[in-house]
Amino acid sequence: MAVSGKSGKISGKGGKIAAAKRHKKTASTDAAGNISKPSLRRLARRAGIKRLSTTCFVPMQKIAEYFLSSVLEKTTTYADHSKRKTIIVQDITYSLKDLNMSLMGF
């Protein structure tokens, strides 16, 4: 007996109704963990840069990874200290203040 309609349920073995099967999302970065070229291009556009040379992507990836790792290292320290597993905005703002960078409006 198959279930029809838009309920999202499928019939399994023996006619039992099972939940809809889900697919796992894959990471948008490559295997090395580098930030993709389109992502770096979007960041450059936001900064006002119109054109990028292909040779600048590798140094940009290294700089972005270094910056993110330093911010996230301090951020996880704040979350661990307050005995949380979830990072909140306040953790990030405090870690940026420790690195002498501040966000406007926070």
Characteristic key phrases:
106 residues; Histone, subunit A; flat
Task: Report what the structure shows.
By secondary structure, this protein is mainly alpha-helical. It is 43% helix and 4% strand. The protein has a domain at 63-106: Histone, subunit A. The chain contains three helices and two strands; from the N terminus they run ββααα. The longest helix is centred in the middle third of the chain and has 25 residues, at 57-81. It starts with 9 loop residues before the first strand and ends in an 8-residue tail after the last helix.
Provide a compact summary of the structure.
The protein is mostly helical and 106 residues long.
List the helices and strands and how they pair.
Elements: E1 10-11, E2 17-18, H1 37-47, H2 57-81, H3 89-98
Antiparallel strand pairs: 1-2
Helix pairs in contact: 2-3
What radius of gyration results from the CA coordinates?
Answer: 22 Å
Shape: flat
Unreliable stretches covering 5 or more consecutive residues: none
- The beta-strand count equals 2
Helix and strand string, N-terminal first? EEHHH
Average pLDDT value? 85
Largest sheet: 2 strands, antiparallel
**CATH hierarchy: architecture of the domain at 63-106:** Orthogonal Bundle
Helix fraction by DSSP (H/I, runs of at least 4): 40-55%
Distance between the termini: 57 Å
What is the topology, as strand order, of the major beta sheet? Answer: 1-2
* Sheet/helix structural class: mainly alpha
CATH topology of the domain at 63-106: Histone, subunit A
